[in-house]
Amino acid sequence: MAELDQKVNLPDFPEYQTEDGRLKIFGFWVFLAAEVVLFSTLFATYLVFKDQTAGGPTAKDLFEVKEFMAETLILLTSSFTCGLATLKMRLGQKKGVLMWMGLTLLLGLGFMVMEIGEFIKYVGEGATIGTSAFLSAFYVLLSTHGVHVSLGILWVSLLLIQVVKRGLTPITSRKLFIAGLYWHFLDVVWIFVFTAVYLTGLVS
Amino acid sequence: MDLFDMKMPDQLIVWGNPLINGAWISIILVTLGIVFVLTKYKKWRWLWDEWLTTVDHKKIGIMYIVSALLMLFRGGVDALLMRIQLALPNLEFLDAQHYNEIFTTHGTVMIIFMAMPFLIGLMNVAVPLQIGARDVAFPTLNAISFWLFFAGALLFNLSFVIGGSPDAGWTNYVPLAGEELTPGIGINYYLWGLQISGIGTLATGINFLVTILKMRAPGMTLMRMPMFTWSTLITSVIIVFAFPVLTVALALLTFDRLLGAHFFTIDGGGMPMMWANLFWIWGHPEVYIVILPAFGIFSEVISTFARKRLFGYSAMVVSIVAISALSFLVWVHHFFTMGNGPWINSVFSITTMAIAIPTGVKVFNWLFTMYKGRIEFTTPMLWSLAFIPNFIIGGVTGVMLASAPADYQYHNSYFLISHFHYVLIGGTVFGCLAGLYYWWPKMFGFKINERISKWAFWVFVIGFNMTFIPMYLVGLKGMPRRIYTYREGLGWTGLNFIETVGTFVMGAGFVLLVWAIIYSIRHAKRDYESDPWNGRTLEWAIASPPPHYNFARVPRITGQDPLWRAKKKGETIFEEKTPLKPIHMPNHTGIPAVMAGFWFVAGFGFVFEWIPVGLAGILGVLLCMMWRSLTDYHDHHEVPVTELRDAAAEEIKNAGGRSARGVVNDG
Questions:
Q1: Which of B155, B270, B311, B582 could form an SS bridge with B265, CB 3.0 to 4.6 Å?
Q2: What architecture is domain B56-529?
């Protein structure tokens, strides 16, 4: 019952309640379309260069199934927890939002730690951005994704502070919802990374 | 790479060349002059409150246009310098290096910092008014777009006095633009100036796309939108899909130069052709980003001054959409000669020629709009009329260039240069000027002096043709682009000399244009007429200049050319009986300008490869964004009904007691 009490003033789909909120959500979808083009260009670049190893390490030499599977599972789970947070937001359950979104952040952080660890290991094996076109494209594609995730962590942390301070209102809900769209989008990009970079790299 | 190694370039302050010394002195004098005037007349506060912190689309539009005119001057001076150097054989007015720098900055400034901001400025002024909106969808983001453009332009324009200009052409092809063949910081200026302003442009694309799709007044269906709004919508779509490619291309070259990556180097397995492809996958749609809005302006102007509705409205819409789709499928025609093979060249020849079809449809529609119209030869109409033949000359030579085998003869010759100047000046610049004249009275409440303007028009257009017709011919005689001098006896001398004279005539046309503007600011009668051209679309239904909230009452639209219909029927498009309601408007904010300042610091740091400075700038940008996120809960204010009522009374007074449509008779 306590949970129901919290819901009192929050309408269904709070994120869409204001004109401003609707515009911003639609605008963010358009922004994501631009992001699709950005990542497509990076993927195309990677696919052009994936065999241009210039005598340096190849994808097969570097990639380890255990590592990238773990990264993938962590990130996919974070998308799930992020989705649960959106559900809790719509139910008006502040505590649930904080818990699931907090968990999402921890998983995102875990992913970043693993990815940075992976990069450090590769550099230790002599595979730097300056080694070959393949590695230039690899690092830039993966880091662009990684920088997006890091910015997402910063962004969502900032939003959670606002939720704690102001509670779930149409405005904070809209902000959370948009950050959620961003987080899911990064997951979708990662699925392509998983397929086009890691899996393809192992079989070629 | 040592993170904290803040190495100095060879020449931080460029000094020695008399031209550059002169530029330094004039930059310092102009800056001091501006500071002096602002201080003397106590205008700093006014500058900050009214302009630097504004989120009003009309003011942002005006700032875009003023900046674009300044850039037109800068790019024009570059052109004059090049033409002086090429007037006669074996001149030594500019040396080879200086010439390379000047043609690079001329091209980049004219496309990125003149044509685009000019058109985006006109979009800002007109589009929300044309659709009956009170602002764009994201006013603060709109201000950020402008200030990012401004920061990028400022950074790029500093290059020639601080550290040295880029010198690899506006297309910045590798391997020439790579670290190995062009060390130093000039190319970095290109990369960061374009990167920063490009992010702003992307935001503009998103903003106008959402504005037009979501904020139209009730009754304004897509197929009732004015043609300029249509062209802005499609341009926004192109921006959203093209600009991220530029972002990536610039970033990859930055990594090559800064971090030793191997995207575009031959060693390490990179491919120089990758740059050409990425650049033109953005670059060709970019051509349509700067021509489609101009098409929209011509449609408005021609229909207004022929006193007829636009002929073939739906065909116009379909043509714009077709052009936007084709614009992404033709990029290879920029490098037919770089070894693509006959199949690929054939495909891209055909797609390129196909663009002539929708463009031809549009030309015929403009002609039919004028057919049997009562044409009024105002200055905006003159620019539009001049556009048609000049653009056709550019278009037809474009089809000639599109034929891949023939292109082996034309490419990199002055024939090509003349072609794209005919479409970019004859299309884009004429369009910008037509739009400037057309919407000027809406922005400021008075017209630009017609007599001086018509002189400016004729001088400019004659100078333009005098410059570029000989340029076609000298191109056919084999003169290549981007050479800083040439021998006697090649048959090029006479034509080159005529071109140079023509360029000065164009320059005189520009001076007359500026004179017309200054003269009108000082002497023109402020009649504040809401509808000075007997217009057809919504922007002419409200006061000139419009109140900051644009529409006291939201108009109701029942068809195309809503104002024209209302005037014919003697009706009003505003429901004057309904009581006025308070209006929500966004607050002014200093964040956009401050954030762009940090972007400038970041850009400057990365240009000189001073990593700590660059990172400090990025940190500042992030802090601005965080600040905004924490404080945007109360970023709107209410305009009270009393203010709306006072404005209405004021408008009636200005209009000499005549009914000022829509704001009178408050119930």
A1: B270
A2: Up-down Bundle (1.20)
